[in-house]
TrEMBL record:
It comes from Telmatospirillum siberiense. GO terms for molecular function: monooxygenase activity. The keyword Oxidoreductase applies. Residues 2-97 form the ABM domain. Pfam families: ABM (PF03992). This is Antibiotic biosynthesis monooxygenase. It comes from the Bacteria.
Protein backbone atom coordinates (compact mmCIF):
# COMPACT_ATOMS: atom_id res chain seq x y z
CA UNK A 1 0.00 0.00 0.00
CA UNK A 2 1.10 3.57 -0.72
CA UNK A 3 0.03 6.57 1.35
CA UNK A 4 0.00 10.09 -0.05
CA UNK A 5 -0.26 13.34 1.88
CA UNK A 6 -0.51 16.22 -0.54
CA UNK A 7 -0.34 19.64 1.12
CA UNK A 8 -2.05 22.04 -1.25
CA UNK A 9 -2.01 25.78 -0.69
CA UNK A 10 -4.43 27.95 -2.60
CA UNK A 11 -3.75 31.50 -3.58
CA UNK A 12 -4.87 33.80 -0.74
CA UNK A 13 -8.60 33.62 -0.11
CA UNK A 14 -9.26 30.97 -2.81
CA UNK A 15 -9.26 27.73 -0.79
CA UNK A 16 -13.06 27.35 -0.87
CA UNK A 17 -13.09 27.63 -4.66
CA UNK A 18 -10.24 25.13 -4.96
CA UNK A 19 -11.94 22.69 -2.57
CA UNK A 20 -15.14 22.92 -4.60
CA UNK A 21 -13.25 21.76 -7.70
CA UNK A 22 -11.42 19.09 -5.66
CA UNK A 23 -14.73 17.70 -4.35
CA UNK A 24 -16.16 17.61 -7.88
CA UNK A 25 -13.25 15.39 -8.95
CA UNK A 26 -13.51 12.93 -6.02
CA UNK A 27 -16.01 10.49 -7.62
CA UNK A 28 -13.76 9.97 -10.66
CA UNK A 29 -10.71 9.39 -8.45
CA UNK A 30 -12.47 6.98 -6.10
CA UNK A 31 -13.63 4.98 -9.14
CA UNK A 32 -10.01 4.41 -10.22
CA UNK A 33 -8.54 0.93 -9.93
CA UNK A 34 -6.39 0.75 -6.82
CA UNK A 35 -7.88 3.74 -4.98
CA UNK A 36 -8.51 2.87 -1.33
CA UNK A 37 -9.04 6.35 0.12
CA UNK A 38 -9.08 9.86 -1.29
CA UNK A 39 -10.29 13.05 0.38
CA UNK A 40 -9.37 16.48 1.70
CA UNK A 41 -8.86 17.61 5.29
CA UNK A 42 -8.36 21.03 6.86
CA UNK A 43 -7.09 22.24 10.22
CA UNK A 44 -9.34 21.39 13.17
CA UNK A 45 -10.24 24.62 14.93
CA UNK A 46 -8.73 25.04 18.36
CA UNK A 47 -7.09 21.62 18.71
CA UNK A 48 -4.09 21.76 16.41
CA UNK A 49 -0.60 22.79 17.43
CA UNK A 50 0.84 23.09 13.92
CA UNK A 51 -1.75 24.54 11.57
CA UNK A 52 -1.44 24.35 7.79
CA UNK A 53 -3.29 27.66 7.58
CA UNK A 54 -6.49 29.12 6.14
CA UNK A 55 -5.42 28.76 2.51
CA UNK A 56 -4.24 25.13 2.72
CA UNK A 57 -5.72 21.66 2.82
CA UNK A 58 -4.26 18.17 2.82
CA UNK A 59 -5.35 15.50 0.37
CA UNK A 60 -5.16 12.18 2.20
CA UNK A 61 -4.83 9.24 -0.15
CA UNK A 62 -4.25 5.50 -0.01
CA UNK A 63 -3.42 3.44 -3.09
CA UNK A 64 -3.02 -0.31 -3.50
CA UNK A 65 0.34 0.04 -5.25
CA UNK A 66 2.86 2.48 -6.72
CA UNK A 67 1.51 1.51 -10.15
CA UNK A 68 -2.03 2.54 -9.16
CA UNK A 69 -0.71 5.89 -7.94
CA UNK A 70 1.24 6.40 -11.18
CA UNK A 71 -1.88 5.64 -13.25
CA UNK A 72 -3.86 8.11 -11.12
CA UNK A 73 -1.35 10.87 -11.79
CA UNK A 74 -1.67 10.32 -15.56
CA UNK A 75 -5.46 9.90 -15.68
CA UNK A 76 -7.45 12.22 -17.96
CA UNK A 77 -9.59 13.55 -15.10
CA UNK A 78 -6.48 14.52 -13.10
CA UNK A 79 -4.99 16.27 -16.14
CA UNK A 80 -8.26 18.17 -16.56
CA UNK A 81 -8.39 18.94 -12.82
CA UNK A 82 -4.87 20.37 -13.00
CA UNK A 83 -5.87 22.61 -15.87
CA UNK A 84 -9.07 23.78 -14.10
CA UNK A 85 -7.22 24.64 -10.90
CA UNK A 86 -3.88 26.00 -12.17
CA UNK A 87 -4.83 29.60 -11.45
CA UNK A 88 -6.01 28.73 -7.90
CA UNK A 89 -2.94 26.88 -6.58
CA UNK A 90 -0.05 28.74 -4.95
CA UNK A 91 1.93 25.60 -4.06
CA UNK A 92 1.74 21.88 -3.45
CA UNK A 93 3.99 19.43 -1.66
CA UNK A 94 3.27 15.78 -2.30
CA UNK A 95 4.58 13.24 0.20
CA UNK A 96 4.49 9.59 -0.93
CA UNK A 97 4.91 7.18 1.98
CA UNK A 98 4.93 3.45 2.66
CA UNK A 99 3.87 1.67 5.85
CA UNK A 100 6.67 1.40 8.41
Amino acid sequence: MIHVLAVITAKPGRRAELLEKFHANIPAVRAEAGCIEYGPAIDADGITTAAFGPDSFVAIEKWESPEALAAHAKSPHMTAYGERTADLVASRAIHVLKPA
